[in-house]
């Protein structure tokens, strides 16, 4: 991968991280400013369900930030764009679709098949 491509993915990852952090700040601001208790039981249940979904989404995004940070580290270390299993280059199309990818499509499919087999046991 050439330096221009690496810089493109570095910027894309940084932008993605900034977007996630901005959304998290928005969620936090709303949580702090909105009442958590609704007088009506149905409204309260609906509100609690909405917040539960929102907090689960933020938790998934928190985990995503650690994967973004790992991808940025791989760029800095010169390992970005190479499969962690086979050492082969990951296609630009795959990295465009999933910039945090650590395996080629083939290696990922093999990994998922092995995971499925071990879960079935």
TrEMBL record:
Transcription factor that acts by binding directly to the RNA polymerase (RNAP). Required for negative regulation of rRNA expression and positive regulation of several amino acid biosynthesis promoters. It is found in: Cytoplasm. This is RNA polymerase-binding transcription factor DksA. Keywords: Cytoplasm, Metal-binding, Zinc, Zinc-finger. A zinc finger (dksA C4-type) spans 83-107. The keyword Metal-binding applies. Residues 78-113 form the Zinc finger DksA/TraR C4-type domain. It comes from the Bacteria. Its main location: cytoplasm. Residues 5-75 form the DnaK suppressor protein DksA N-terminal domain. InterPro entries: DksA_N, DksA_RNA_pol-bd, DnaK_N, Znf_DskA_TraR, Znf_DskA_TraR_CS. Belongs to the DksA family. The lineage of its organism: Bacteria, Pseudomonadati, Pseudomonadota, Alphaproteobacteria, Sphingomonadales. Signal peptide: none annotated. The keyword Ubl conjugation does not apply. Interacts directly with the RNA polymerase. PROSITE patterns: ZF_DKSA_1 (PS01102), ZF_DKSA_2 (PS51128).
């Amino acid at each position: 991968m050439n330096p221009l491509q690496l810089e493109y993915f570095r910027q894309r990852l940084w932008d993605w991280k900034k977007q996630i952090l901005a959304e998290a700040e928005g969620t936090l601001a709303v949580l702090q400013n909105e009442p958590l208790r609704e007088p009506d039981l149905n409204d309260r249940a609906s509100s609690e369900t909405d917040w539960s979904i929102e907090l689960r989404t933020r938790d998934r995004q928190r985990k995503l930030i650690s994967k973004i940070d790992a991808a940025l580290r791989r760029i800095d270390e010169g390992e970005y764009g190479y499969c962690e299993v086979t050492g082969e280059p990951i296609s630009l199309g795959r990295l465009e679709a999933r910039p945090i990818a650590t395996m080629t499509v083939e290696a990922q499919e093999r990994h998922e098949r092995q995971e499925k087999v071990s879960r079935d046991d």
